[in-house]
Amino acid sequence: MQKRTLGADRLEVSAVGLGCMGMSQSYPPFPERDEMSTMIRAAVERGVTFFDTAQVYGPFTNEDLVGEALEPLRDRVVIATKFGFDLEDGSHGIDSRPETIKRSVDASLKRLRTDTIDLLYQHRVDPNVPIEDVAGTVKELIASGKARHFGLSEAGVQTIRRAHAVQPVTAVQSEYSLWWREPEEAILPTLEELGIGFVPFSPLGKGFLTGTIDESTTFESRPEAVDRPYSRHHEATPPRGERRGSRPRAHRRRPGGDRDRCSAAHRGRPPLRGSPAADDRPLTCDERVAFTPPRGHRSGIRRAFSERELLGAMGRT
């Protein structure tokens, strides 16, 4: 398994990571807990060192699962988790007030069965709390040893710059795939300039780019069964026989258009990038919970979309 380094402080992670959200949320039916724990440990044995979770996944149950599975392997792995929601009153509203962050981190440490969080993300930007206050709080947590590195999820350019000025940001995660390439416009150049790693989530378009979902797919009529509506992707799903070499239709930007304000419903997990070279973005596979060792994993893996030019050419065919 190849390695990648994130940020100027060079957090080393495996080129392929495992996003664990789908084990507890968003993609029912959920497998048995023991089965997921076995899979997480099997991933470590195959060279995966980067695992992503969050307090809101479940909520809480995903962190507990990851913590239990990785406890005996803690010195071999990097655990990323996230804060940014008030989960105590049942509203699950965005909340990054300093007191909420500190309370959330203390609870996450207990569920993860560890004394430090390797990569601590703000899950979603809180428009009511200055990002400088958020970064300052994380800086205190790092100084106290409760966290090692600071990350942002789906933040805009100005938010990233302001946060980075207070506490160096190690990584930014955002959706990035063949059919959602908006980060190339402003996010990636900014991260390149500042020396911040990039962790893309949903690199396979939540299954739409793999053939898992097609025109015959049906969904349960349970609003709680999915994290967000799929209407943005619906028209872009080509008929089964046209997938190879076909180009997904252009889709609209997310509602709202404000890149510095992120919908609480727009949740996901990562892959990555840490060095200036475009090929150095690791992948965190979060499309589905099943883990299949990549072909050739013993000799090292190149990320699935390592060449922007190749992707562009594929999209134009």
Structural description of this entry:
- This protein has an eight-stranded parallel sheet, with helices on one face.
- The protein has 317 residues and is of the alpha/beta class.
- The protein has one domain (3-212, 269-316): NADP-dependent oxidoreductase domain (TIM Barrel, Alpha-Beta Barrel), CATH 3.20.20.
- Helix 2 links the parallel strand 4 (50-52) and strand 5 (78-83).
- It has helices at residues 33-45, 61-70, 98-112, 131-144, 157-166, 187-194, 231-234, 308-316, and strands at residues 3-6, 11-14, 16-19, 50-52, 78-83, 85-86, 93-94, 117-122, 147-153, 169-175, 197-201, 283-285.
- Helix content is 26%, strand content 17%.
- Helix 2 packs across helix 3 (98-112) and helix 4 (131-144) packs across helix 5.
- The longest helix is centred in the N-terminal third of the chain and has 15 residues, at 98-112.
